[in-house]
Specification:
Layout lengths: L2 E5 L6 H12 L3 E3 H10 L3 H12 L5 H12 L8 E4 L5 H12 L7 E6 L2 H11 L6 H15 L1 H5 L4 E5 L4 H15 L1
Parallel strand pairs: 1-3, 1-4, 2-3, 4-5
Helix pairs in contact: 2-3, 4-5, 6-7
Bound molecules: adenosine monophosphate.
Adenosine monophosphate binds next to helix 2 and helix 3.
Length: 184
């Protein structure tokens, strides 16, 4: 298990679980949302281009996202694996990821899905209080997840490890570990 993607609606705890699993698997944790937020904070050209999308809770256009991911996945620390958090977010991005990996004869090993009810998510996100966590933006991001990202669950059907994301962080981690072991 070295090339892993984690998907789930905003607020499902992807970032927390991704950080844990990147440590356990010994691979870098790559969060596209985090990379975009860094660009915004550092006022880079890309930061200027993407800020409006982040603020509105909309997906950044694929050309910009794909370039960011291609660049990150060409860095040497990813040669032996990665844990991707927040990418892919739609089927076109998943196709691109497949293509990038095929260029080095690699492929994904598993896709982890965290399942959490929308009402719980909205409460969690309002409590988190990040700049893009106002109620309207949160609802927008949930809608975008449902329409754009959930088709990935079928796309990755043969490698999907789907777990209930409600509970203590450690409980959820154990469920994911059990699911990954079952797949081996
Ligand atoms: P996240 O931290 O994963 O919730 O992402 C925060 C924001 O970054 C999202 O609401 C999008 O605006 C943008 N973003 C992150 N990942 C992607 C992606 N794969 N494709 C398009 N936009 C993204």
């Amino acid at each position: 298990m070295r090339r892993v993607v984690i998907v789930g609606p905003p607020g499902a705890g992807k970032g927390t679980q991704a950080a844990t699993f990147s440590g356990k698997l010994g691979v870098p944790h790559i969060s596209t949302g985090e990379l975009f937020r860094q660009h915004v904070d550092e006022d880079t050209e890309l930061g200027h281009q993407v800020k409006g999308y982040l603020v509105a809770g909309l997906l950044v256009p694929d050309e910009l996202t794909n370039e960011l991911v291609r660049g990150r996945l060409s860095e040497p620390d990813t040669a032996h694996g990665f844990l991707l958090d927040g990418f892919p977010r739609n089927v076109d991005q998943a196709d691109l990821l497949k293509k990038i990996l095929a260029e080095t004869d690699a492929a994904l090993d598993a896709v982890i899905e965290l399942r959490v009810d929308e009402d719980i998510l909205v409460d969690r996100l309002l409590a988190r209080g990040r700049a893009d966590d106002t109620e309207d933006v949160i609802r927008n991001r949930q809608r975008v997840y449902r329409s754009e990202t959930t088709p990935l669950l079928d796309y990755y059907d043969d490698m999907l490890v789907s777990v209930n994301g409600v509970g203590e962080v450690d409980e959820v981690t154990d469920r994911v570990l059990a699911g990954l072991c079952d797949r081996k």
